Amino acid sequence: MSAASMAEWIMEQVRAKKGKPIPSHVNYFYCFGGISLFLIIIQLFTGGIMIFFYTPEPDKAFDSIVYLSNEVPMGWLLRDLHRWTSTLLLATVFTHMIIVFYMKAYQSPKQFTWLSGVFQLLMVFFLVVSGVILPWNWRSYWSFAIWMDYVGSWTIGGEPLKNLFLDTFTISWAFYTHVLIIPLIIAVSLAFHFKMIKRYGISEPL
Questions:
Q1: Residue 192, C-beta contacts closer than 8 angstroms, at least 6 positions apart
Q2: Are 106 and 64 in contact (CB under 8 A)?
């Protein structure tokens, strides 16, 4: 069997399993959601490996990052791939939301699809913020300080919330939030998001 025949057979199997043809109006602008999912998978893979080298302690966190970057074979590539993919993920999710908003896909009956997407954008943002804190170098410290000042500036509940964060903050808390709590929330939200897409379909252009 040739490579072309094999590829055609695979596509036929995919179409048979899906049971639903891809709408004719779908173009490259509809791909940002899928790209975001692909980047999330990269983040899970690279982050899952980095866990074995990171130490969530204030006096060891940065040294463990230096060891990963300089001593572990291809560790620098692993860290840079994780770091730059996180930035790209935030950009693709944001772009996806802009396109969905432009197409007015937030309207009934797809309002829950839209709200779950907005929630995922917020969670991805928290992932980026918590990830910046983990190395606990000067950039991490001042990023955390700036965000705390921003939270403290909120008119309603800002100062109490800021004090709560400062009183309970530890590197371990940031670490488990980054690698466990937020990913679990995103996984549940993605499952709901895909369920809504399957139920109501892909929006057509205006």
A1: 112, 116
A2: no
CA dihedral 59, 60, 62, 68 (to 10 degrees): 170
Per-residue DSSP letter, 205: P
**Residuewise pLDDT in 10s, the chain (206 residues):** 555 566 566 556 555 555 555 555 556 777 888 899 999 999 999 999 999 999 999 999 999 999 999 999 999 999 999 999 999 999 999 999 998 888 887 888 888 999 999 999 999 999 999 999 999 999 999 999 999 999 999 999 999 999 999 999 999 999 999 999 999 999 999 999 988 888 887 766 54
* Nearest to 44, CA basis, from 179, 181, 189, 192: 179
Fold assignment, 28-200: Cytochrome Bc1 Complex; Chain C (1.20.810)
Q: Per the structure block, which two tokens stand in for 167? A: 């009183």
Domain borders along the chain are 28-200
- Give the number of other CB atoms < 10 A from CB of residue 87: 12
- Tell me the one-letter amino acid at 106: Y
- What does the alpha-carbon distance between residue 187 and residue 196 come to, in Å, rounded to a whole number? 14
Tell me the two tokens of residue 102: 């432009």
